[in-house]
Amino acid sequence: MAKTVTLIRHAETNANRVGRWQGSHDSGISPTGESQLLALAERQNGQRPDLLVASDLPRTMRTASVLGDAVADPAWREFGVGDWEGLTSAEITDRFPGQMEAFLNGGPIAPGSGENMDDFRDRVIGAFEALVSSTDDGRGAVVVTHGGVIWSIMSYALGMTGGPLKMIPSHNTGSTQIRVEEDGTMQVVVFNDATHLVDLPTQFGPEGTVISLYRHGQSEANAEGRWQGRTDSPLTALGREQVKAASGVAPPMQSLFTSPLGRTVETASIIGGVLGVSPVDAEGLMEMSFGDWENMTSDEAVASDPELFGQIYEEGLDMPRGR
After folding, report:
1. Angle, helix 262-275 to helix 237-249, in steps of 10 degrees
2. Which of 96, 116, 305, 311 would you label with 75, given CA atoms 20 to 30 Å apart?
3. Partners of 258 in the beta sheet?
4. Taking the C-alpha atoms of 65, 68, 74 and 75 in order, what is their torsion angle to the nearest 10 degrees?
5. Model confidence over 194-240: pLDDT tens digits?
6. Cα separation, 64 vs 51, whole angstroms
7. DSSP-derived secondary structure letter, 297
8. Does residue 135 contact residue 3 with C-beta atoms inside 8 Å?
């Protein structure tokens, strides 16, 4: 049976609040961070994880305390940033020319003469693999850790360890879950879920245009377990409730584009109605065609062409679905 590892970033610290870097040093949880902890605890609703582990730094141990009794493990610490400690990104760029650029490009740099990033990745990937090995089949572990740690494990899970990962750091108290199958295959189930927060925390990362991708709400075919690409079916009552819930946490939008299929148009109409934006059809956003597999269940698709199904979903070949 599969196992799950859930990674939760610590609550906002005083350094996070003012955009200052912190590695092995600590600055205490900010007032906003304490509010985030209340929201995180409320979200858990008294449920306790099978196993709870935390970096041994104060900010992670305090965050873990609202989830249960955590095992402190220094292997889950943030990377040491050396002379960068307590500085803003602008100050680092001024004082250490070239270092920030090398860091963002994924080079084998030791930020501020602190911990070498290759050594850091080896450390946290080793901690992740050890945790997976020690977790019983069908069970889950929760780790309260740091943005850099989550970033590195995400790059490992996605097979993107050879260069910079084009992904924003996790939000404070944001949750990321990785599912590990019996054969070691990893699947990112959730990334950076911070929907328990009213306001998103202070965030490092580049500025620019933000593109949010929403899947349509549950359709009747989804509810029946049937494949639909270019064929269509309306949203279920649950699907409409899902879209309303998503609309409540959606960021402000200047424009809204949708596939012209009915299920996505209905989804976009609900979101646009809440946010005051009119959807615009874009044919390029349509789902792929599943050919003869349209409206079949997975079992029916396998039975109709087991060789093709195996080539695509077992061997990983890129072939037209359903012929």
Report:
1. 40
2. 96
3. 281
4. -130
5. 888 877 655 555 567 878 899 999 999 999 999 999 999 999 999 99
6. 12
7. B
8. yes
For the chain, the helix, strand and coil percentages under 3-state DSSP, each to the nearest 5? 40, 15, 45
CB contact set of 54 (below 8 Å; sequence gap of 6+): 60, 61, 63, 64, 70, 71, 72, 73, 76, 143, 144, 145
The pair of three-digit structure tokens given for residue 205, joined into one six-digit string: 């990362």
DSSP 115-177: S-HHHHHHHHHHHHHHHHHHSPTT-EEEEEE-HHHHHHHHHHHTT-TTS----PPPPTT-EEE
The three-state (H, E, C) secondary structure of 201-221, written as one string: CCCCCCCCCCCCCCCCCCEHH
Q: Mapping DSSP to helix (H, G, I), strand (E, B) and coil, where does residue 187 land?
A: strand
The partner residues of 193 in beta bridges, in order of sequence, read 175
**How far apart are the C-alpha atoms of 16 and 174, rounded to whole Å?**
14
User: Which pairing describes strands 256-258 and 3-9: parallel, antiparallel, or unpaired?
Assistant: unpaired
> What are the CA-CA distances from residue 285 to residues 134, 234, 265, 280 (Å)?
42, 18, 11, 11
Is the Cβ–Cβ distance between 127 and 145 less than 8 Å?
no
Which domains occur in the chain, in start order? 3-193 (3.40.50.1240), 220-313 (3.40.50.1240)
What gap in Å lies between CA 60 and CA 75, rounded to an integer? 13
Task: Count CA within 13 A, CB hemisphere, residue 307.
Answer: 1
DSSP state of 316: -
The amino acid occupying position 178 is I
